[in-house]
Specification:
The chain has 214 residues and is of the alpha/beta class. 35% of the residues lie in helices and 16% in strands.
Length: 214
């Protein structure tokens, strides 16, 4: 029991044994229990769940245009309700530009407590100073571990599958227009499994009695 459940103490083990019909004293459990040398750390999934209301993720998405130029989409995603707080498009991303986007995403005193990101070189010293000045604590994923930033990675996949795989992007202005319309759909109409089949901006139930379903 103590090997599999490293966070359990002696009273918890005594209680579980009692529920199995085995009555032992706490002192007996203390005698045989293997003690961990350090306190167990929560798993990454537990960390994300515990900080979901205070956590924001950022990531870049690469899109080619009809003329084979490469455009970069920066998305800022609030984990709670899966809302896209801010996005922008550029052909030449820099640390200074990325830091400025964070200011635009969180004006005044609306900055989140934690910012989750990967270790891309684009988040250089200028970006880090800007984020620190806003009182935001950075949370870095492990190297080559995109699954640790799963919320925004899932969003990037949705953007591709629902939208960008079905259009040819002409230029930066065209891409911004496409994404603006998509995020309006994403927030108000698209159902999300993680939100119990609701939309980020809660969508009311519309039964057939309200009108013809098209």
């Amino acid at each position: 029991m103590c090997a599999v459940n490293v966070g359990w103490g002696s009273p918890r083990i005594v209680g579980e044994l009692r529920k199995l019909g085995i009555d032992v004293a706490k002192s007996t459990v203390e005698k045989y229990r293997v003690r961990s040398r350090k306190a167990p750390s929560p798993t990454w999934k537990v960390f994300l769940k515990n900080h979901v209301r205070d956590l924001v993720s950022i990531d870049f998405l690469v899109v080619p245009t009809v003329r084979f130029k490469i455009l970069f989409i920066l998305v800022v995603l609030a984990h709670h309700r899966r809302r896209v707080v801010h996005f922008n498009v550029t052909e030449h991303p820099t640390a200074q530009w990325t830091g400025h986007q964070i200011i635009e995403a969180f004006p005044w005193d609306t900055a989140p407590k934690n910012l989750l990101r990967d270790r891309d070189a684009i988040y250089g010293s200028q970006f880090q100073r800007r984020v620190k000045s806003m009182g935001i604590e950075k949370v870095l994923t492990a190297p080559r571990s995109p699954w640790q930033n799963a919320f925004v990675e899932r969003l990037n996949g949705s953007i591709r599958r629902d939208c960008l795989d079905h259009v040819i992007v002409l230029n930066e202005r065209h891409l911004k227009r496409i994404l603006t319309r998509y995020f309006d759909y994403y927030h108000c109409w698209r159902t999300h499994l993680s939100l119990e089949m609701d939309s980020p901006e809660s969508r009311s139930v519309q039964p057939p009695a309200l009108g013809k379903v098209v």
